[in-house]
Amino acid sequence: MLADLALGRMRSKIGDLEMALEGRFGDHHALMCRLHLDHIGHLDAMIAKLDEQVEAMMAPFRVERDLLTTIPGIGPLTAAAVISEIGANVTEYFPDAAHLASWAGLCPGNHESAGKRRSGRPRHGNQHLQPVLVEAAWSAVRHHGYLKALYHRHVMKWGGYRSPTAKKKAIMVVAHAMLVIIWHVLATCRPYDELGADFFTRRLDPDRETRRLIARLQALGHTVSLQTAA
User: What count of other Cβ atoms lies within 10 Å of the Cβ of residue 2?
Assistant: First the structure.
């Protein structure tokens, strides 16, 4: 019975689990497992009651919640958490998306000295909204579209996928972008309009990109000659 509780990839090891439990599982172990299972059941019941309460309290804001769920990475619970922090009438407290991002602590820090702009850490913002948006951003970058392309663009800019720092910085950029999208969705009462995974490539200036690539090859010591494709 215990081995059959295995989930995910552990289900392929049920036979090994049965052998591991055989002969070394006494009444004391059974009691402890029963207490843990009862505790889990109690927690599940509490979560279900809280979900019912959240659903009841979200009744006046179902339209806004449904609009937010059109954004990749945002489900009903995340949408409820966002609305509980910033409200449904977002323009009442935040005149534009920049004010909301600053309040949430998801905008870049401002560190300028002697006329030179230096890297600054983001300011401390709403401690409840930040982690929700970061989790939503990790979910969003798994979906093919603009937000995934934005994440890839900044990961490569800051060191590539082998760099944990690059991925952390890039996910904060995505979280900021999602908060801007949230403001516009709530302010306009319109669902999310997907810009597409090719958003950045469509915006490239072919002549400028050609000059950039030529300059990069020349810096590596190559002689470049161009021939127009037929």
Answer: 14
